[in-house]
Specification:
InterPro entries (chains A, B): Dehydroquinate_synthase, DHQ_synth_AroB, DHQ_synth_fam, DHQS/DOIS_N, DHQS_C
Distance between the termini of chain A: 42 Å
Largest interface: A-B, 26 and 27 residues
Oligomer: homodimer
Shape of chain A: globular
CATH architecture of the largest domain in chain A: Up-down Bundle
CATH topology of the largest domain in chain A: Dehydroquinate synthase-like, alpha domain
Strand order of the largest sheet of chain A: 1-2-9-6-5-3-4
Radius of gyration of chain A: 20 Å
Keywords (chains A, B): Amino-acid biosynthesis, Aromatic amino acid biosynthesis, Cobalt, Cytoplasm, Lyase, Metal-binding, NAD, Nucleotide-binding, Zinc
Function (chains A, B): Catalyzes the conversion of 3-deoxy-D-arabino-heptulosonate 7-phosphate (DAHP) to dehydroquinate (DHQ).
Helix content of chain A: 40-55%
Cofactor (chains A, B): Zn(2+); Co(2+); NAD(+)
Pathway (chains A, B): Metabolic intermediate biosynthesis; chorismate biosynthesis; chorismate from D-erythrose 4-phosphate and phosphoenolpyruvate: step 2/7
Strand content of chain A: 15-25%
Amino acid sequence: MKSIQVMTKDGAYDVNVDSELRFRLHELLPKSYRKVFVITDSTVGPLYLDDVLTELRKVSEVDYSIVPAGEGSKSSRFYFNLMTEIINAGLDRDSLIVALGGGMIGDLAGFVASTYMRGIDFIQMPTTILAHDSSVGGKVAINHPEGKNLIGSFYQPKAVLYDVDTLHTLPLREIRSGYAEIVKHSLIHPTPFWDQLKSLNLNQPLDNERLVSDLINGIHVKREIVQQDEFEQNVRQYLNFGHTLGHAIEAERGYGHITHGEAVAIGMLFALRVSEQHFNIQLPFDELYRWFKQNNYPFDVSDLSVTRLITRMKKDKKAKNSAIQMVLLKQLGECTSVRLEDNDVTLWLETFMRELVNN
Amino acid sequence: MKSIQVMTKDGAYDVNVDSELRFRLHELLPKSYRKVFVITDSTVGPLYLDDVLTELRKVSEVDYSIVPAGEGSKSSRFYFNLMTEIINAGLDRDSLIVALGGGMIGDLAGFVASTYMRGIDFIQMPTTILAHDSSVGGKVAINHPEGKNLIGSFYQPKAVLYDVDTLHTLPLREIRSGYAEIVKHSLIHPTPFWDQLKSLNLNQPLDNERLVSDLINGIHVKREIVQQDEFEQNVRQYLNFGHTLGHAIEAERGYGHITHGEAVAIGMLFALRVSEQHFNIQLPFDELYRWFKQNNYPFDVSDLSVTRLITRMKKDKKAKNSAIQMVLLKQLGECTSVRLEDNDVTLWLETFMRELVNN
């Protein structure tokens, strides 16, 4: 079992990554709990909930709730329904909530845990590669109709238990989406591990050893950054590398029509291109482009409007000539946050999108 | 201006108590804010909102919302409505929320602030005596139909600005309610100040000097306890002195039919009586009883059922013979938490209620 410890203001927690963790759950709980409540979704529930319940019932009274899969469950409605369910299940301040699922479940269950009786313990059991990112760092939230993650807290889990077996049931698109964030982590930190990813072929089945190693590398970078900046005052913004354009593409396409990681992949290529031009340097744009292509990341952006993307990328969407804030690389592994004129970004984006379509 | 500094895990904040503070607001803000949003209720709004808005508009863009007075506004519905309003008002992570009102407003606005964009700054401007208690210590929450304050956080204000002028418009019942918590603070801490309260007559108009002094004394005790135990792991429970029976009476009478402090007054007398019997000591029960009587605290408990009160006082309401946890005094100023058999408490409560009615 590979393990990484994350230090926070409220104490430390371990991120454990291994196969068959779900069958060793009760040894891995940070303490004993009289009551445990598992929150999962309609995709993950049928696959892994029984294993988790069986294991937890050896040591605790256990209840659970299954919410519909998809971002729609990260809503005020499901949040309050879950509150009612855990009250009825008799959870008190000494109880535990387990988030069994991807980022949506981690965010939702974590926000429930952070605000039930002013905060009770919770554990993340991520079941996607993408969640290696969201399960570490203590960001929990639900969405508001006006925007994603507008309602939430900083609230740390008591442990992250990552059973890599659960990743083999992921559809290929979700594997691609998760690996895009691993690629991001491989590029932005002073110990870049991009070289170790280059040869990976996502179209072939991934073995557990490989998964454990790549996840640990990604989590290591995430940990280094969130430990420096738990509350997103400074360097934590570097985690947004590739996300300025990525988020804009996601929103323009409509959530669900492109995965988060697929959008971020395009966003990272653009951020590399802008970095090269802004700092007049050479970065591994071509290498990264080829890797994404070989692994079938979708690059069909021809239908997207540059003007609309630029509007979404602006910090203040109502201001006509406001700046765009982007995380760029001064060299591989060294981030910086730069304010750019939207006219410059518009020109670069037009060229970049032509290039992407014509290649 | 009297000032007390409260140390918390997330930094320190000042509690300032004085008259006319609302006209010096902009000097007292901890930093400058581009946007400020004031949350108040339909009782306080007509009286003091204009003063506050006028003052804040000297330095910021200001919006506000007025919710109906009363505990009903501490609900998920008003919570989400406020979220929508502050999103539409364009509040970002560098904005400020001001809670102008009593404990209900402080709890509601504080919970909004603690969960909007994972937490933005907020300031408490208490307008009741009771709120000297709730505005210090960082407990914020809304109610769930199944119970009070079940959804909330620990989240510290950036400042508490207490304008004692606003207390002169309080109805007498609210003055009594607030002073009951000051009396509580006067009894439970190693520097008891009960002697200074004895001569006070609440039926006469209170002068500002007296109010400032009593509030500062109460807040001092609250601060000492919450600094020792920010997250309610141990000594913070001493603040529940008088609340075991107090909460039970409030719930039995129905919220709104007896004020919080009036119920706690009866609860404190009972806790003194139990302390005397449990530890075989003498405490100033008679003195306190006389003071409450002189100040017209209502003691008509003859219609309440001892059995029903006992059920409500039990930690586990479903268990038949479970223990009751009460905070008792070993001597004036020294608290301890004791588990008592419900049979013992029943006998004491029957005697106590007869005594209260017959006197």
